[in-house]
Design goal:
Layout lengths: L2 H13 L5 E7 L5 E6 L2 H14 L5 H10 L4 E8 L6 H19 L2 E2 L1
Amino acid sequence: MDTIDRKAAIAAYKERKTPAGIFAVRCSATGQVWVGRSRHLDTQQNGLWFTLRLGSGMNRSLQAAWNACGEAAFTFEELERLPEETLAYVLQATLKERLVHWKAELDAALI
């Protein structure tokens, strides 16, 4: 890869849009559901699974269920993706509002 191609690739990476939204983690063994919000939905599962495998999950009930049931019992589900046009200063408030909605809708715990 020459210098021009490399610079173009770096510029394209910096300009890419990352999807924000609400996700759910479900345990098929216990029926428990946890919901969370993320500014990077496309990479959220990878990061969450990594912390749970290490035993350092931020949510104690989720970590306890993970330890008891194992990784195979868990699924990650994207519940809602916000439009890419959502302005940065409105993003956090919108995510918080939609998180409250999905928490009530699914009778879930928060991550």
